[in-house]
Amino acid sequence: MALSEVHWDHQIPLPKLAPVRAKLTVALVALLCFINSYDGEFVFDDSEAIVNNKDLKPTTPLNNIWTNDFWGSNLSSNSSHKSYRPLTVLTFRLNYLLAGGLQPIGFHMLNIVLHAIISALMIDMFAILIGGLAYDEKDKIVNLAPKTSLLAALFFAAHPVHTESVAGIVGRADLLCALFFQLSFLTYCKAFNTGSEGDDRFSVRWVVVSLLLCAAAMLCKEQGITVLGVNAAFDVLLICNVNVYELSQRLLLRRNSLHVGDVVRTGLLTRLALMALGGLTMLYARWRIMGTGPPAFTEVDNPASFAENIFLRIVNYNYYYSLNAWLLLCPWWLCFDWSMGCVPLIKAATDWRTAWLLLLWCVLIGLTSQALCSQDSQRRRTLTLGLVLLVVPFLPACNIFFRVGFVVAERVLYLSSAGYCLLLAYSLGHCCCRWTKYKKLVCVAVLLLLCVYVARCALRSHQWRTEQSLFTSALSVCPLNAKVHYNVGKNLADRGNTTAAIRYYREAVRLHPSYVHAMNNLGNILKERNELVEAEQLLSKAVSIQPDFAAAWMNLGIVQNSLQKFEEAELSYWNAIRFRKKYPDCYYNLGRLYADQNRHLDALNAWRNATVLKPDHSLAWNNMVILLDNTGNLGQAELIGREALKLLPSDHTIMFSLANVLGKLQKYKESEGFFLHALRINPNSASCHGNLAVLYHRWGKLELAKKHYELSLKLDPEAPGTRDNYNMLRRKLDQLQRSAP
Questions:
Q1: Which of 633, 682, 632 is nearest to 654 (CA)?
Q2: Cα–Cα distance for residue pair 202/267, rounded to 1 Å
Q3: C-beta of residue 41 within 8 angstroms of C-beta of residue 467
Q4: What residue ranges are annotated as transmembrane (predicted)?
Q5: Residue 608 has what pLDDT?
Q6: How do residues 313-343 score in pLDDT, each as one tens digit?
Q7: What does the alpha-carbon distance between residue 573 and residue 576 come to, in Å, rounded to a whole number?
Q8: Distance of alpha carbon 733 from alpha carbon 726, whole angstroms
Q9: How many CB atoms lie within 10 A of CB 247?
Q10: How far apart are CA 692 and CA 679, in angstroms?
Q11: What angle do CA 326, 332, 333 make, to 5 degrees?
Q12: N or C: where does the chain have the smaller number of CB atoms within 10 Å of the terminal CB?
């Protein structure tokens, strides 16, 4: 296939840079856009995928990464989202090991660097898709569209829709998937660098390597398999130089017979067969790993997919596509979550929003007709491959093949935006060719657009630095989204502002009356504020809507216990345990209920269950020691306390309780040791100073008793019993002083 420099490329208002300099420029722009997110916190989904994911910890067997989903749940679990991304989780684990723990800076920096690398590699990818595949004598890609590929890569590096993937750490999945996607494509191109002049030679080895890189992309995120579609389109349109329009005319109108031999000689069928076999193998393996069943999503996650009317379902899907297109065209209204009322369903064909999907399809049909029917082979190739790169990576998110768990998600546009950027760069080059006298105006427009992109990226990545700024930024974009109000409320509650949190939780429940998580959290806050009746109503409603909501059952039990509805509370606790077998906190609260009813043996059994399920459950251990102490079982209390400290050697509350027991057993020296150790950990504990003083008082070390009574009263002047004991000690000291010779 004879290749020549792209005729519109010299009109692009950019300097022609050397390949290395061009890549460095693009990488620097990418860094400039997102560098201010480097010191951000763990936000939103980072909590589940990283902070609470046991697969990141060195104590967890490495094999767990290959059997658990992205969030650390077993793939066979009914609650698993079936997101199988072990290579992404492996990079999280490496971050954890290198930083010695959960230090977000390392996680963020790697994301930013990955985006810079991907943006730089986009130059090579765009160069091939626009100018065709050519190698020099050093086996390096010859860029026949240096300005257009540079401009498209700059647009990609600075596109604000990438903020979620770069500034949000869980976006690592999109970044790694995109990197292996690029490598798979570039490796597939390498298969045709055989040194032969004809198109009938190719390297099977490089095709196989490309398939392996595709598998790696898929192990980072499921979307990675779409590179096979891009590779196939590239092979047909560019390597084999097939004119799709002419081919369709031949087949439909039977003007000329299709020369099958010509197709066979190119090796196209062999390559397509290899890719089809590889793709089917990957899909089968993925299906088996997933447990041969799709993830279960709810109507809240994707309401359009639950619409009974298939016509309205299709209309809403197409409206979602138009929203995604708008995010690429005008990435100003960005939101971390687009579910729960953020995008109301279209329920009638007369809805004015149907105009947007009609406009979308008019544009797509117009672009497709230009791509297929243009007499200019360069334009035809660029438009067709640009559309392929825009559409194919988006296919897994389009609800056609399977239901997805979101309405709109900016992160799924990371790869598709490359196709958009290619088409945008082509359009600007085409404008420069047609309107040469406005070339300076186009140059100003390009610079202005890039500056706006960079500024928007900087602003948006700053919003992603903290949950507070991220969640509040969504209020103006999606004011009808109950999840936005819920997350704002949760963030306020975590920071101690429960009054404001109540307002946002109530709004979340108003917008989505069956939002059980908002009811549960609101009920918890009302419980803490002693507004028990309303708390009980909310939690009862939550479990009636979702009967298997174990946390709500437990919280309802706590409220009922506070209202002295002991039978109802016990039933609620057992319901929670029925729906979540391993629930140590629920066993702990059940033990408290039994203790309040003087059912001491049941309480001890419940707390023992809590410690079996969670060996470091400090409260359960401590309550067992205290209960045994209060009931006079000092020997057993000592055994339990010592057992607890083997598991929790730095727990000052257990040391305190065990020291009290040892004091009553007249093991004064050991008791003193535990009290002093507890005070080294928590030196401002008034009760610990007070009880140590009582120990010294009994032991006859009166001056030390006096010292610790005074320290206790200094820390807490109202400490119960301490002042009486102190006054008693002073009288005794006075008597001893008067009786002294």
A1: 682
A2: 8
A3: yes
A4: 112-135, 141-161, 173-191, 203-220, 227-248, 317-334, 354-373, 385-406, 412-429, 441-459
A5: 96
A6: 899 999 999 999 999 999 988 999 888 888 8
A7: 5
A8: 10
A9: 13
A10: 10
A11: 75
A12: C
